[in-house]
Amino acid sequence: MRIYFYTKLDDKQTDKKYQQVLDVLQGVDIQITSNVLSDGGIDKELTKSFFEAGLSVLGQFDAFVMEVTEVDQQISYFLAQAILQKKPVLCLYQKNKSPRSLLMFLKQKNIPRSIKIKAYTDSSLSKTVMDFLYSIEGRVEEIEIPSIRFTLRLTPQLDKYLNFVTQGKKITKADYLREMLKNKMTENSKFQKGSK
Amino acid sequence: MVFKQKKICLLFCAEPEVLGQKNINQASFTRWVDGFLELSLIADIKAEFIWQGNGLDSDWKTWQKLAQTIHKNSSRFDGFVVIHSLDNILYASSLMSYMLSGLKKPVVFTCTPVEPNIKFSSTEGEIFKDFSELTIMANLINAVQTACMDLDSINILTGSLLVRANMATRDFTPSLNLFSQFDDQSVGQVGFGLNIKPLKTSNQPRISQLSRIEPDVQIIDFFPGTEPELPNLENKKGLVIRSGQFNAWPDSLSNQIRKLDIPVLVVGLMDDNRAKEVSKLKNTIVARNIIFESALAKFVWSLGQTNDIGKLNKLFKQNIAGELG
Lengths: 196, 325
What we know:
The complex is a heterodimer of chains A (196) and B (325). Chain A is built from eight helices and five strands. Chain A is an alpha/beta fold. A five-stranded parallel β-sheet of chain A has the order 2-1-3-4-5, sandwiched between helices. In chain A, strand 3, helix 3 and strand 4 (89-94) form a beta-alpha-beta unit. In chain A, helix 1 (12-26) crosses helix 5 (125-137). Chain B is of the alpha/beta class and 325 residues long. Helix content of chain B is 32%, strand content 22%. Chain B is built from nine helices and 14 strands.
C-alpha cells in the first residue's frame, strides 16, 4: 500500500507533532511518500510515467494522511485532488485545536465518506491511524522487531547453501531466513485463520 | 477555510459539452461551479460566462469580450482561469498575453482534449463522458491552484504541464499534456503540488486602459513551387503571409507586396539572408523565432496600437509578454 503524508512545515507547533504521525506510519509495512521526508520517498520512475501521461502523480497513492491542525493552500489542494480521485483521506488534528472551517466543510452532506477527519492525542494517535489503514486494506501488517533470540544449528551443506543464496545480495543470512519464514507464514491459510 | 482563500474568477469560453451539458449560460455555469465541491476547497470562486459554441466559431470579438471582462475585474480577483475550447486556445491565450500584459495577475487557460462531437457507441459514450469530466475537472483543480500563485503571466495548463501561452505549441503525443513550449521549457509542472519556476516579471507597466486590437487582417499560406496570388485586400488593415521552413520566395510575390499600402507580416523560418531581403520590401515585417499563433495575435494587437510600419517593426522586436523567450 502506498500512502502520501503531508503536513504544513513552516509552523513549529505542527512540526513537533508530525513526527508522531510519521512514526506510526513508518511502523507499518507500507510505502510512504511525504514532504517531510528528506528524499520525499518518491518513486521517481513511477512519478515520471504519471507525469509523462499528463496524469496527477497523486494518482499513484492508495490513500492520503494529512496533519491539518494548520490548514494551508496545499492541504486544500491535496484534499480537492483526493476527493476528485475518490481516494481515502485521513485528516488529523490535535485535540482542542480544531481547524473549524475545514471541519465545517467536511461535514457537508456531499463529502465522500472516504474522507475522515479525526482529533488525536498522543495516546490515541496510533489507534486512529491504524483504524484508518485497516479500513482501506483490511489488513495492514505492523513491522515487528525481531526480539526473540533463537539459536539454530545447520549442517555444513545448508550453511553452504545459505552462503550461496545471500552472496552478493545486501542481505544477511538471518534476514534471508526470516523472510523465508515470513513468506511461508503468509501462505499458510490454516495459520492465518487461527491467528485472527 | 482557516487560511485566507484567494479570489479567483473562472470564465467560460468553450463548447457546453466540455462541462457535459447541452447549453450553458451565466446561471447554469454558476450552478455548475457552485456544485464543484473540490474547487471551493482551493479558492473563493466566482463564475463568469463569456461565450459558448463550437470552438472554431470563437473569434477576436469573443476574445475582446474576454479581455474586457478580465481587465474590468482585475482589482476584484487574485487570479483568473479560463475554460476555453481546444481548437483555438493558442490564438485566444496569445492575444490575452499582449492585451493584458501588465495585468500583474495570473491568467490560466485550460481545456479538455476530448472532442465533444465524436460519435461513440453507448458503452464507449459512458466511458467518454467520465473521461471528459475527469479531465476538465482535474485540469480545473490544477488551473485554479496555479491562479492562486504568485504569477503574472498568461499560461496554459493541461495535464501535468504549465506552459507560457505565447510560446505554446500543440503536442500530439498520447498524453493529457496537450501543449509544450517550442523552446522545450515549461513554466511549471504539476507534481506533489505545483512546482513553478521563477518567471521573469513582465516589464510592461501596469495597464490602466485595455489596449485596442485590429483583427481585420487577411491571412494567406505560401508554399514553395507555387506562385501565390494575393486576394483583394481593399478593406483589410493588414496582411499575414505564413511561409514554412524554407527560403523560397518568388519575385512575383515581392512585386505584389510592393503595390500594397497595408502592413505585411511574413511568418516563417527562413534564413538570415532571405529574412533581410524580405524585410526590405515595403511595409513588411519578418517574424521568425515566434510561433504563428503568437505572431498573428501580436500583429492584430500591434495594429490596434499603430499602423506605422516603423513603430510596428519596433513592437515586433520588443519582447512584449515573454513571447521571444
